[in-house]
Design brief:
The protein is α/β, with parallel strands linked by helices. It contains 22 helices and 24 strands. Helix 3 packs parallel to helix 6, helix 13 packs parallel to helix 22 and helix 18 runs parallel beside helix 20. The structure holds flavin-adenine dinucleotide (FAD), NADP nicotinamide-adenine-dinucleotide phosphate and iron/sulfur cluster.
Amino acid sequence: MGSMHTGLEEHKDDLKALAAYFAARARGGAGLMVTGGIAPNRQGWLTPFGAKLSSRDEAAKHRNVTSAVHDEGGQICMQILHAGRYAMHPFLVAPSPVRAHISPFKPWEMSPRLIRATIQDFAASAALAREAGYDGVEIMGSEGYLINQFTVPRTNRRQDEWGGSFENRIRFPLEIMKQVRQKAGKDFIVIYRVSMLDLVDDGSTWDEVEQLAIAIEAAGATMINTGIGWHEARIPTIATMVPRGAYAWVTKRLKEKIGIPLIATNRINTPEKAEELLRGGFADMVSMARPFLADPDFMAKAQAGRSDEINTCIACNQACLDHVFKRKDASCLVNPRACKEILYAAPTAPLPKKQKIAVVGAGPAGLSAATELAAKGHEVHLYDASGEIGGQFNMAKRIPGKSEFYETLRYFAKMIEKNGVQLHLNSRVDAAYLINQKFEQVVLATGITPRTPQIEGIDHPKVLSYIDVLQDGKPVGEKVAIIGAGGIGFDVAIFLTAPKLASGGDLEAIAHYHHEWGIDTGYTHRGGITAPEKETSPRQVWLLQRTKGKIGDRLGKTTGWAHRLTLKNRGVQMWSDVQYQRIDDAGLHLTVGGESRTLAVDNVVICAGQVPDRSLLEPLEAAGIRVHLIGGAKEAGELDAKRAIEEGFLLAERGD
Ligand code: FAD
Ligand code: NAP
Ligand code: SF4
């Protein structure tokens, strides 16, 4: 289980929530786990008062983590991470005073004395980690943090013994590696994370990556882990549009060059993909981080041949990375228990009284409520008007780059079967039916209806809803205006502009992704990047919003920029400060920044948000039935699957 910062590292609870989180993953069979980044000193903090291990007092708290993991038969390494110029505090340091465009602060240049002291701090932190009971440490040498800042000309402009030539630039990591090994002892695991692809200008050449890895092995590392992409890189490296295993090729390139175990990472989220990479000789080990948030029992299920029961990480980042970037604790969209293990022991004991409960709507909210209520022993009947479970996820899964959403539906289908939910598809139910069936409680998860904006000509035949396009497959012309640039507007734009791939196979998807984002698999340029290939879109599309400012500003922090770049590369016109006037045979008439325009489009697709569907609430309550509203039926504003699934889960968890 690879390193991932969750925010639990910063809790002032003697790391008990962190201990419960890792204990659950150890119990679920993860072989070797690595904590989120822990700084070796104050300057290395990611954020003010962030996680750090530089004293015996701090080490004592980590004992709670290591003993909880060992009690469950697991093993755990602590990652030592010095943020360098990525630190979100004003005392940040770096080899040279070069500010990162994603940081508000310019770093202080490290003096040679400070460099030597920092190396000792890494070694001291490793020794303390050993004292705290860790089985090893991982030295974070990638993702653009301090060590990586030393190794490349982009951020190392020094002319002394720590900069200039390659030998000088890698002196810092090699000294750290040697001193960590010396201080922590021979029988201690030391993983070194090499930045195999920086994905930024003036990063490493392939020869430099290779030479660094060989030197790190010689300096005493136990294993080498793969690091991909600096945080400031403008290439998505783990988001859902990145095909599975898209970076295994770079790990494989190093395979013949080193003798110690080599670990592959990034967008490996199923046991089958992991096995495929191991069998194909891409790596000796596979590291996954988010998949263990999504399912702590990932390994146990895989080992027992029950991989169809794994709750798969869909790489959405919505509840993990997006939370961490907002300085909130991480959790998981598909598993609301994640990082709250101390609150919700899974699964809880059955309720004293079994009840007959109807859940109306098999979208994410209803699926979550029904499967969790049934797991607690209730008689649960799940109804959906449609012929398949999933609600709006059945549209989401059709968006190119979102095929992972199929996995969530596969998981829920399995849980319906396993937990004994009685599923009634093609069954649009009304209040009279539910009253007649004598349900003790009814959960309304009936979702939403799309909002129809009041625009003259909204009934014109060229107007389509996103449901017409994504669900009903209605034909769409070559020139299209999309009204509304929320999550769905963006997805519709991606759907309408996606180039057709010939085979639809995994290898083609990976090759397309490399070309689309300018990933230089020949490694002819520093940093492994080249110019992205211009995409040819089958349509000309305008994506419109009324609000002024950046388009799609409310999209996820870690993925919104990638969606915008994708559409820009496909020539989509993204306009804000728009007022809609009318739709007629000539097209869509509007003003942009007050200036009148007519878009001569074939179709106008409406993605103007949603309103709750609560039509069953009143008659059921009037009949004295206890009704719960969850998901879109409760509130459509700011609705997403994270909220829908969590509300279903919490309803069952409350147990009232
Ligand atoms: P819904 O998914 O709308 O499900 C409601 C269900 O109730 C439907 O299946 C309907 O048939 C059924 N129903 C209604 N009335 C009755 C009745 N009387 N009897 C029987 N059945 C009934 N969210 C994210 O978090 N991340 C994303 O990346 C994302 N991408 C999306 C992409 C697209 C294209 C779309 C359309 C949505 C996306 N969403 C995404 C939003 C997400 O899918 C919704 O927030 C979520 O589906 C809401 O869940 P829900 O269960 O409340 O409602
Ligand atoms: P949304 O994000 O609320 O966006 C609705 C859009 O419609 C906005 O751009 C809004 O912008 C516009 N709009 C609202 N009222 C309008 C009106 N009366 N006339 C014209 N335009 C109007 O909702 P959504 O796109 O329907 O998505 C629904 C939910 O699914 C959202 O919560 C979203 O987060 C989630 N989702 C998430 C993703 C993801 O990738 N994370 C993807 C898809 C959906 P203006 O008011 O500025 O015009
Ligand atoms: Fe994976 Fe999304 Fe869960 Fe993060 S929130 S672990 S990306 S499914």
